[in-house]
Design brief:
Elements lengths: L1 E4 L5 E4 L4 H9 L3 E4 L6 E9 L7 E8 L4 E10 L3 H18 L2 H9 L8 E3 L8 H19 L6 H23 L2 H8 L1 E10 L2 E7 L3 E7 L6 E5 L9 H9 L10 E2 L2 E2 L9 E2 L7 H12 L19 E6 L4 E7 L1 H4 L4 H16 L13 H16 L7 H11 E2 L2 E2 L1 H8 L13 E8 L1 H10 L1
Antiparallel strand pairs: 1-2, 3-4, 4-19, 5-6, 5-7, 6-8, 8-9, 8-14, 9-15, 10-11, 10-16, 12-13, 16-19, 17-18
Helix pairs in contact: 2-4, 2-5, 2-6, 3-4, 5-6, 10-12
Length: 448
């Protein structure tokens, strides 16, 4: 039993977990996928550590079936896990159908395609139960029938439309079916960050406060730099606050955002689901209040909708200096800054290279050069990380880092907090690290 300082400054007794137990907890949900094909992405690594029970974070990663492209997303739920669980399985499929060639889409429709006809998910172990799956498939069929008759949009516009269309479907399904399954999805919510990668084009679409950070390494100095690829939609984003205030009458300027939250309740200023901040008074009176009670209506609910599921979409053209992309829920950024995250992954990447078989440079190699290589490998092995998985490495550092390195007792403390209080000290943490194929990008850059 060890006495550890708490977040509130008090000191409480917590059971000391063993290193074995800590590693089991940290590595329980880690996943690694290596790509055999020669393309933009070499591999990705992901992991998740829950705080809520059940966990309100979800993640999905998939390759395209009809083109050489990759897509993945991090989804952070609130007011329960229902919306994040549903959105994580459906949103990427809406995007996939939106960005394939229209001829391919029409051909698939003629063959009787389903929502699973466009992506090959890499770590998807569950599916919807039949009744709810049929509802979702009907919505997807209507969606692709609509877009197949339209002209192809830009990638950014297609991704944006996929977000908005799914959000609209969540609303219509809840109001049409009016069962607890569809209503629980509509009454809960989820923020999202999605990365879509095709050749050298990287698009990042987000609503809410998940984040994407690009790890860029200087070719001259080898130094790492962090480049944020999205904006969080919360009260720290002045443009976002201005946008919302401009959508409502001036007399509401003191109530639309209060206590740093939308209508004094919701921290993210954009989200999927959360229709109690979107539906009209008529819908709330007819369908919501009779089931959930009058307290479900937010205070000062005068001129809905107050919340949007429309994403911001950023476009970045990859260069050989872009080495990896980290997308994560805000639980990671509560502990680590973007620059710290990039440095940790960069160092982790370098240390893993020393564990690979030694390769001598081409041509005649002098004995002194071999000695230097061996010396560097020996020093690198001394810095061998505890975790092969870089997402696990980030979570370990998030919980345990100090000015003097990783402190085991600090990690043990965070992992042994009782379920009824753990949410006060840390959030769910979900991380995906995507490694780029530098040689492929360099060759593609030369060709273009």
């Amino acid at each position: 039993m060890e006495i550890i300082p708490t977040k509130r400054g008090k000191r409480e007794a917590q059971p000391q977990l063993s290193p074995y137990d800590v590693n089991l907890l940290l590595r329980e949900h880690e996943y690694t996928h290596n790509f055999q094909e020669d393309n933009t992405i070499r591999s990705y690594e992901s992991n998740q550590l829950s705080s809520n029970s059940p966990c309100e974070d979800t993640r999905t990663e998939a390759s395209f079936i009809h083109k050489n492209a990759f897509i993945c997303g991090i989804f952070d739920g609130h007011a329960g896990p229902s919306c994040s669980q549903v959105v994580s399985k459906r949103l990427l499929r809406y995007i996939a159908a939106s960005v394939v060639d229209r001829d391919v889409l029409r051909d698939q429709i003629a063959k009787g395609c389903t929502s699973q006809s466009f992506l090959r998910c890499h770590n998807d172990k569950v599916d919807f139960v039949k009744d709810i799956k049929d509802i979702y498939e009907n919505s997807f069929s209507s969606f692709i029938a609509t877009i197949s008759s339209q002209e192809a949009e830009s990638r950014a516009a297609a991704i944006e439309n996929a977000f908005v269309s799914l959000d609209n479907d969540l609303s219509e399904e809840a109001l049409k079916q009016r069962n607890m399954l569809t209503m629980s999805v509509a009454m809960s919510g989820a923020v999202a960050c999605v990365a879509y990668i095709e050749n050298l084009d990287l698009h990042v679409a987000s609503v809410g406060d998940c984040s994407a950070v690009l790890g860029v390494q200087s070719a001259e100095t080898g130094q790492w730099h962090a480049k944020k690829l999205n904006n969080e939609h919360n009260v720290d984003n002045i443009q976002e606050v201005t946008r919302i205030l401009g959508e409502h009458p001036a007399e509401e300027k003191d109530t639309v955002i209060r206590n740093d939250r939308l209508l004094s309740q919701l921290a993210p200023l954009r989200a999927l689901g959360d229709f109690r901040y979107k539906w009209s008074h008529e819908i709330m009176d007819k369908y919501v209040i009779p089931t959930f009670g009058p307290n479900v209506v937010p205070p000062n609910y005068y001129t809905p909708p107050y919340l949007s599921g429309r994403p911001e979409v950023m476009h970045h053209v990859l260069t050989p200096n872009d080495k990896f992309l980290v997308i994560a829920s805000d639980g990671l950024f509560d502990f680590l800054s973007p620059s710290q995250i990039v440095t940790l992954v960069g160092d982790h990447l370098a240390s893993k290279k020393y564990l690979e078989p030694m390769k001598l440079p081409p041509g005649d190699v002098k004995l002194g050069e071999v000695s230097d290589i061996l010396g560097k490998r020996k020093a690198g092995r001394a810095r061998k990380p505890l975790d092969q998985n870089s997402a696990t490495h980030l979570i370990r550092n998030a919980l345990g880092s100090t000015d003097y390195g990783i402190e085991f007792s600090k990690i043990s403390y965070y992992l042994s907090l009782p379920q009824d209080v753990v949410r006060l000290y840390r959030d769910d943490i979900t991380v995906t690290v995507i490694y780029f194929n530098t040689d492929f990008i360099a060759n593609s850059t030369v060709k273009t």
